[in-house]
Structure formats: structure tokens, C-alpha cells
Design brief:
The protein contains 3 helices and 5 strands, in the order H-E-E-E-H-E-E-H. By secondary structure, the chain is α+β, with helices and mostly antiparallel strands. It has one domain: HIT family, subunit A. It has a 5-stranded antiparallel sheet with strand order 1-2-3-5-4. Strand 1 and strand 2 form a beta hairpin. Helix 2 packs across helix 3. The longest helix has 21 residues.
Length: about 130
């Protein structure tokens, strides 16, 4: 059975896309830790990040870097925090989270559902940067 993210890649489930190329996709998290919390994924479904072949892993990191630069321009923050936890969806993903430098702020305990309109407007703003 395809993962949730594979279903997003195929267009079966909608998302708020930030950036996309032939191998990778970035979209806003529906339960963001902070506004702009984005997931960067390879389009190819691989469960665990360290099971990716070297070329795909390197490409994912370069893609995530490009997304992070867009986030920094669109969302006021000090940095983009990076998390790779990977247990909640069996499809490799990197969390890119705008942070302010407050101790403990980069934690899923802060995640809460975001409304669709807010995500739509934020995705548009980030894409335009």
C-alpha cells in the first residue's frame, strides 16, 4: 500500500506545494511546529533515510537547502531547523522548521493543526520568493 506521501506525490491527496522537481517535493506540514514548517521528500518511496542510495540522499539535501532559502526569505526567523525523525510516515522526509532560537522550540510537542486557508496563503508567499 502506498504511503501517505506517495499518494501526495501522485496527486491523489492534495498538499500545499512549496517546490518540486522531477525527483523531490516540498510541501507545508498540516501540523506545523511553527508557521512555514515544510517537509522535503524524495518522490521515490523509501522508508528510512539511510536506505536511500547516495545520489538520492545527496540530491534530497541539496533540494532541502533550496527550500530552506525560500523559507528564510518568506517567514521571519533566525534559522531553519532541520529534523529527521521518520517514524510517523514510512517515507523518507526532512522537516524544515523556521525557528527563532528559543530553547526547546524545535519539538513536535508544539505542533498543532493549521487551517487550510492559512497554509494556502503561506505556500503562495513562499513559492513567490
Amino acid at each position: 500500500m502506498p504511503s501517505l506521501f506517495t499518494r501526495i506525490v501522485s496527486g491523489e491527496i492534495p498538499c500545499h506545494k512549496i517546490m518540486e522537481d522531477e525527483n523531490y517535493l516540498a510541501f507545508l506540514d498540516l501540523r506545523p511546529i511553527a508557521p512555514g514548517h515544510t517537509l522535503a521528500i524524495p518522490k521515490k518511496e523509501v522508508n528510512y533515510i539511510f536506505e536511500l542510495d547516495d545520489t538520492t540522499l545527496a540530491g534530497l539535501m541539496v533540494f532541502a537547502k533550496k527550500v530552506a532559502h525560500k523559507l528564510e526569505k518568506a517567514v521571519p526567523c533566525k534559522r531553519i531547523g532541520v529534523l529527521v525523525y521518520g517514524l510517523e510516515v514510512p517515507h523518507t522526509h526532512i522537516h524544515l522548521v523556521p525557528v527563532q532560537g528559543v530553547p526547546g522550540e524545535l519539538s513536535f510537542v508544539h505542533a498543532k493543526p493549521a487551517d487550510t486557508e492559512t497554509l494556502k496563503l503561506l505556500a503562495e508567499k513562499i513559492r513567490k520568493t
